[in-house]
Amino acid sequence: MTSEMPTSSGQDTTPHHSRRDFLRSAATATAGFSLLGGLTFAGAKAAAKATATSGSKGSAPQDESGEITFGIVTDLHHGLAPDATQRLQAFMEAVDEHEDLAFIAQLGDFCHPTADARDFVSLFDQFPGRKVHVLGNHDMDKGTKSETMRHWGMESRFGSFDAGDFHFVVLDLNNIRQVEGDKANYTHYDNANFYIDAELRGWADPEQLAWLVDDLAAANKQTIVFSHQPLGFSGPDQPLHQRQQEVLDILYAANREARRTNPDAGQKVVACLSGHLHVDRHERHNEVHCLSVNSASYHWAGGMHPYADPLFCFVTINPAGRIYIRGQHSEFTNAHPWQQGLAMNTAGVTASISDRAVVYRREG
Ligand SMILES: [Fe+2]
């Protein structure tokens, strides 16, 4: 991997701002607070190192129960979906209707690092609280990973932060893995270099996996993992791919270790949320809830099948062991792909994000 890529974890200490009519007032369109704060990209590694050791805690609002809520949107595909900006606008208006969101997150395939996407990023940045970016493959269609991160104000391609009583991990699975003999080489996605054999794409690099082990060992809060590429999903009757399994195995090991050291402790890693597939699915592997969050814009099967309304969801997580997902429900603008004989072997093809209530093992 290139040495200049920042890789450390970190947390920001952004204070939460109360709800504002930020969409209607240019005056509130203030500078955003990205995953790791507002420093320049070049200084990210040092900054991340500093914040990671500061012991800073998330400032997410929570009620007496410790419950927090955050907003999720994914796969807007600005530059491909013709109305991506209006769809993001709809998400931001829904965000504005929520009091005290802990943060908002986009799970990748957001936009290219190009001038025509500047206003799109600014729209997302109008949220006055914490904003979380996850890199998706198409975000490197027209630029390097570094350029995309700079465009978004994202300072570390992976990392973690705390919000309320919960820990959140952001992964970057946009890496090519090529094996030569007994050696595996990893390359960042960069200007569409990843349109190659699918087996080579979507891997976490060893540096990131080692960091994940350490981050989870240090975390003492229940944890949710964000990635663009799926974790916990495969085709019908197919095992999970090794690139997913090697990440999940780290999550399982963290859960086993937490339980070994304190049998009464709650489940440490409780959920993984991902995008990329443009489907609405839920699976559970070794207690970990895996959610495939549907695209805001469309399903792809032999072409674009737009959703009549923008899709996004709000997730509430409660220390009592419950996760609630409140999604958006729409329909295809044309016939369902299945009615057209398309995507017949693909699970979760729907123009909705389902409402779900799931439980995880809590303390005691
Ligand atoms: Fe996508």
Give an account of the 3D structure.
The strands form 4 sheets. A 6-stranded mixed beta sheet has the order 3-2-1-14-15-16, covered by helices on one side. The protein has a 6-stranded mixed beta sheet with strand order 4-5-8-9-11-10, with helices on one face. A two-stranded antiparallel sheet has the order 6-7. The protein is of the alpha/beta class and 364 residues long. Helix 5 packs parallel to helix 6. The chain is built from 6 helices and 16 strands. The structure holds fe (ii) ion.
Describe the structure in brief.
By secondary structure, this protein is an alpha/beta fold.
Secondary structure blueprint with pairings:
Layout: H1 44-52, E1 68-73, H2 84-96, E2 103-106, H3 118-125, E3 130-133, H4 145-152, E4 159-163, E5 166-170, E6 175-180, E7 183-188, H5 206-218, E8 222-226, H6 242-261, E9 269-274, E10 281-285, E11 288-292, E12 298-300, E13 304-306, E14 313-318, E15 322-327, E16 356-359
Parallel strand pairs: 1-2, 2-3, 5-8, 8-9, 9-11
Antiparallel strand pairs: 1-14, 4-5, 6-7, 10-11, 12-13, 14-15, 15-16
Helix pairs in contact: 5-6
Bound molecules: fe (ii) ion (FE2).
